[in-house]
Amino acid sequence: MIVQVLVSGIAVGGIYVLVAQGFYITWRTSVTLNFGQGDFLMFGAFVALSFLRAGVPVVLTAALVVVCLAVLGAVLERVAIRPVMTAGHAALTWAFTTLGVGVIIQNAAISIWGNSSQNFPPLFGGKLELLRIGGVGVYAAELAIIVLSTVIMLVYLWVLRRTLFGKALAAVAFSSDTAALFGINVRRMHMLAYVIASVLAGICGLLVGPISVVHPFIGLNFALKGMAAAILGGFASPLGIWVGGLLLGVIELTSNLVSSQFGDLYPFLVIVLVLIFRPSGLFAGREAGVDPAR
Question: pTM above the 0.85 mark?
């Protein structure tokens, strides 16, 4: 039982991690957040669901979801972020514009797919297929989610730390004006950050399908948990967010053993207690991957 709960918690935590990294990269590069990030996750889930029901292979479905969400992220930055930043409007105006885009996406999803809950077709060997590991049964879908989210996270960290693109993002995060003086297209970096965040949300939507039902309002819960994971781990540390997301998932699933009625209460109580003693998160000040000095 404990092993099953841990596996489920890590799988759910992996989703929270990817959502949180989407918040992280846009905040670091443009000091803005997509308040509709959860709706992007929901939209990615429905896009994946449509392709899978049409008989499109899983790998091709994933590629199509990435393309669709990349375009959506670029459009979001262009119509909801750049105009208000360029015009020098009051701080947090972007919060309302991104929230507005999220509401539009949510209503579009209701118009296209309806507002009822829908189940994914078999993805990673089927949602109900159990694998026996050491005499313990775990869902194949959850193991697949853990592997995929870990691989995506490792690639994400490698890009941030070891590539020229990652160093350009770090430079923009450190100082946009200085980065522009060195020939970095700051606006393009902002757009690419939103493209990456949207793609991560879309991948989360694909991964959520096998372990949950999909409906137009599913995004809010994952967005809140993703933000909580970022705050718990430390908003300035990708590795801290990774740990925070996995920890949040395990605490949430473990607390359901105590009381399923108040399963969401205990994780947030833990977060509050952590922030009382560590206001900046568990890994505050530990820059992993965006240190301009690297």
Answer: yes
